[in-house]
Write a structure and sequence with these properties.
This protein is α/β, with parallel strands linked by helices and about 525 residues long. It contains 17 helices and 13 strands. The strands form 3 sheets. Strands 4-5-6-7-9-8 form a 6-stranded mixed β-sheet, with helices on one face. Helix 5 links the parallel strand 5 and strand 6. Helix 3 runs antiparallel to helix 9 and helix 7 packs antiparallel against helix 8.
Length: about 525
């Protein structure tokens, strides 16, 4: 072999080793990172299953309910949730063994600030929700600062009527809860974000010292398993869980994703993310949990290791096996062997074990008849309730630009009106009429034009402004019509931000500005009219 050839071989070998080490380090970092890994084409995790014994103690967890009674009916993208289906599922699961129901995060209101025209309805809904939850005999309810959206006095009134067992510990006088489920003792710790206001009074303190003290107290009281319910940001909660091995389970109460499996945060410790707004119910089955030793998730741990091995092998395959290096090839063979053995192995059947499942609250589930009746009574009450507090349309200030309404627009834009009549925007009010929600302030605002805007519509005053008309997107344009058109007195370009006023993640989760825009542009409205013969 010539010196030049030897040099080339050496250079190629070094390069391949550099790539191998870099990929290995990157993969290790990826595994350690708390952020979700990029989507892989490797075999997906198995469907959630609960290989637990009937009668095992179980924890049912609901996080971030946020005043959610039912899914928005405007789109087929939103079908999960409804309080009557959630209650039915909880009651059904309670028949299967000793059960604790845990609710954490904001549960009464959707927003921190409630507009004046929504106050009466939001208060009625908050009282209804707390009544329905009280009927479920909630074992622990950790509130959130958002529950004070209508003030401390209302929250105290609701709590007097329907008391809660609050496990928040990082508050002056806060104490954890010790729940007894058959022979199993479960400790529950609530942790809020430092500096936030607590609905029951006071400001939340640093969570870590409080969590340490509460965990020590629970262990002294004989707790076999400790779970923390926390409204801390995800990264902070993971760091706290990593620092406190006594916390075997931690449930993210605010900003949680819908994770069908547990997420490890350390040996024998797992994070629960069940989503929000009652669209999913987390079920934690505990088997032989009075036994000593770490808590194991046999199904989840095996599924995660299988996915890890498949990802490593895929990376090696894409790199061509690293050119036949003996060590690299041996590593791949060892990974394949481990993968085959793991897939053929049986789940661990002894020791302290957890089995987790995330149940979607879908339209196929039955409803609790009593809850359904109360929800319908609440909905029937909205007309009188909201009209009694409605103040009428907001007056147009002198010299202000009012709403010309559809027929005024059509005088100069008949082609645009003709095209609009074939869009879903032209049937927006009809959908409310069919659903009997024309007096529901949560719905009306996006089904009329100029809601609560100066010179626009308001609850009970929608004549001439029903449906999503031209001015819902282009803004009030009476002055534009008065001067005979042109570029003044109207919004010619409709930005994505305008559309997202209604097409937000709660009402239109699959909204794509570019794709949806195509549905509202056509002849006479962004496209030339057909040539008349």
């Amino acid at each position: 072999m010539t010196p030049r050839l030897r040099w080339c071989v050496l250079l190629l070998t070094t390069l391949r080793l550099f790539i191998f080490v870099t990929l290995s380090l990157s993969l290790s970092a990826l595994q350690a990172s708390p952020t979700p890994a990029p989507e892989s084409t490797a075999s997906p995790l198995p469907e959630p299953a609960t290989p637990a014994i009937e009668g095992d103690p179980q924890l049912l967890i609901v996080t971030g309910l946020h005043g959610y009674i039912e899914p928005c009916g405007c789109t087929i993208d939103l079908t999960l949730g409804s309080i009557e289906r959630l209650v039915y599922q909880i009651k059904a699961l309670k028949q299967k063994g000793p059960t604790a129901l845990l609710i954490a995060g904001g549960h009464l209101f959707e927003h921190e600030e409630v507009p004046e025209h929504r106050r009466a309805q939001d208060e009625a809904k908050a009282r209804l929700l707390r009544e329905l939850l009280s009927g479920l005999e909630v074992d622990a309810l950790m509130p959130h600062a958002i529950d004070l959206a209508l003030g401390e006095e209302l929250y105290r009134s609701i709590s007097v009527a329907h008391p809660e067992r609050d496990p928040t510990v990082n508050i002056e006088g806060g104490q954890p809860l010790l729940l007894t489920l058959g022979a199993l003792k479960v400790g529950v710790i609530g942790l809020g974000a430092e500096g936030a206001h607590h609905p029951n009074g006071g400001v939340l303190l640093a969570p870590l010292p409080a969590a340490k003290a509460a965990a020590a107290l629970l262990k002294a009281q004989g707790a076999h398993v400790i779970i923390a319910l926390s409204s801390l940001p995800r990264a902070e909660l993971r760091a706290l869980a990593e620092a406190l091995p006594e916390l075997e389970l931690v449930a993210l109460a605010e900003g949680a994703m819908e994770q069908p499996t547990l997420s490890p945060v350390g040996p024998g410790r797992y994070m629960i993310e069940a989503g929000d707004r009652g669209r999913n119910l987390a079920v934690v089955r505990l088997t032989e949990a009075t036994a000593p030793g770490p808590l194991l998730d046999p199904l989840g741990d095996r599924a995660r290791r299988i996915k890890d091995l498949e990802l490593r092998l895929k990376m090696r395959s894409q790199m061509g096996g690293f050119g036949g290096f003996g060590r690299a090839k041996g590593d791949s063979d060892a990974l394949r062997q481990e993968l085959a053995q793991l897939k053929a192995s049986e789940l661990t059947q002894d020791g302290k074990r957890v089995a987790y499942s995330l149940i979607p609250i879908s339209a196929s589930l039955p409803v609790d008849v009593e809850v359904e009746s109360k929800v319908k009574a609440y909905q029937r009450s909205l007309k009188a309730l909201n009209l009694a507090s409605a103040t009428g349309p907001v007056p147009l200030p002198e010299g202000g630009n009012g709403y010309g309404k559809l027929e005024e627009c059509a005088l100069c834009h008949p082609g645009a009106k003709t095209f609009w009549e074939g869009t879903a925007h032209a049937r927006a009010w009809e959908t409310l009429e069919k659903a009997e929600k024309t007096f529901d302030v949560e719905c009306v605002s996006c089904h009329v034009t100029g809601f609560q805007a100066p010179g626009g519509s308001s609850l009970g005053h929608t004549e001439g402004l029903q449906d999503v008309q031209c001015e819902a997107c282009h803004g009030p344009s009476a002055q534009h019509a008065e001067v005979g058109g042109g570029e003044s007195g109207t919004r010619l370009k409709v930005t994505e931000q305008v559309c997202r006023g209604c097409h937000n993640e709660l009402h239109s989760p699959k909204f794509s500005y570019a794709d949806y825009l195509k549905k509202v542009l056509g002849p006479g409205h962004g496209a030339p009219l057909p040539v008349q013969p």
